[in-house]
Design brief:
Lipocalin; four-stranded antiparallel beta sheet; 2 domains; 4 helices; about 45% strand; about 325 residues; mainly beta; disordered N terminus
């Protein structure tokens, strides 16, 4: 009880400090500005929920409640005619970059009246023309208001910092969209959580009668981890090769299910490594960065090495395959 009273008292002091000016004369807007800059830093990157998908299978989560794999790219870009603090968004499913299901432009701004960070969402009139703009941001430099469609004002997401995370949501009942595919009016809701290394996305929609259209039926967010890239070298022994094996370096791999394969001289044979940053949702196992060795497409690793999840380097040597991967700065 005593600790609870201290917590309430502390929150009350913070509330009192949220007036126009702090006691020492510092404008309260400077607090939001600081949070804004931090969020812009955390938001940029690529995020994937492969760990959630894997453990849904392990835990035998029901089909309706299980999550599909999604990969979200948030790349900061410049389009002066649209404004500042812009991000190109591209999302794809099933770990396949060709299965793009959403492209958006996000515009962030500080809403000092709400003491929140506002996220306005735009769609592209010609999405094909800007596909993969995260790889070629020049595609967006000449973008103008005539090239995008703004989502209704009620679809704006408002973010506020809560301890060491940012929580985002829309005004309840405010986001209504007419579906281009079905012609139905959809009520969209979105709750989000952002930390330095994760983003949780719980977007969902119902029709006007309240029927489910999309979103996880159990109300569990897609939990995406921020991708880290590593640069690797790999050697595969091959007795049929003149050199006795094959070596390649400068290879990129993602800690969210990335793969590197080397073909062997014998037709159809190959060896490779896969990488995961394993985040256990249960038990006492510690999270680990893992490098798996494979000698076929069965999906089953022959062996593996592991280390701390934030390690700068990981390697293995099984004689028939050797690999070493170093985290990119």
């Amino acid at each position: 009880m005593f600790k609870w009273m201290i917590s309430i008292g502390f929150s009350y002091c913070i509330f009192l400090a949220s007036g126009a000016v702090f006691a020492d004369g510092i404008d309260k807007n400077s607090v939001l500005d600081r949070d804004f800059n931090l969020m812009m830093e955390w938001f940029e990157g690529e995020f994937d929920n492969m760990e959630q998908v894997y453990f849904d299978r392990v835990l035998k989560v029901g089909e309706e409640e299980a999550h599909g794999r999604v990969h979200s790219i948030f790349k900061r870009v410049a389009a002066p005619a649209i404004g500042l603090h812009l991000f190109y968004v591209q999302q794809y499913s099933d770990g396949d970059p060709e299965k793009v299901y959403r492209q958006r432009l996000y515009r962030f701004s500080a809403d000092y009246d709400r003491s929140a960070i506002a996220l306005q969402i735009f769609s592209f009139k010609d999405a094909a023309a800007v596909k993969d703009a995260h790889l070629d941001p020049a595609k967006l430099e000449g973008l103008s208001d005539g090239d995008i469609n703004a989502m209704p004002a009620g679809c704006t997401v408002f973010w506020q910092r809560r301890a060491n995370q940012f929580v985002g949501s829309m005004d309840q009942g405010g986001c209504r969209i007419v579906s281009e595919r079905s012609g139905m009016t959809l009520l969209i809701e979105d709750d989000l959580l952002l930390t330095e290394n994760e983003i949780w996305i719980q977007d969902r929609a119902t029709d006007e009668a309240g029927n489910h259209v999309f979103g996880n039926k159990a109300g569990v967010a897609h939990k995406l981890l921020k991708q880290q890239l590593f640069t690797c070298w790999i050697y595969a022994k091959d007795d049929a090769a003149e050199s006795g094996g094959h070596f390649k370096n400068g290879l990129k791999i993602s800690d969210q299910g990335g793969e590197i394969w080397l073909p062997l001289t014998e037709e159809g044979k190959k060896v490779g490594v896969k990488m995961r940053n394993v985040h256990w949702p249960y038990g006492n196992n510690r999270n680990s960065l893992v490098l798996y060795a494979h000698n076929d497409d069965s999906g089953r690793a022959v062996s593996y090495a592991w280390t701390e999840p934030d390690a700068k380097r990981i390697a293995l040597n099984l004689r028939w395959v050797q690999a070493s991967c170093t985290r990119d700065d």
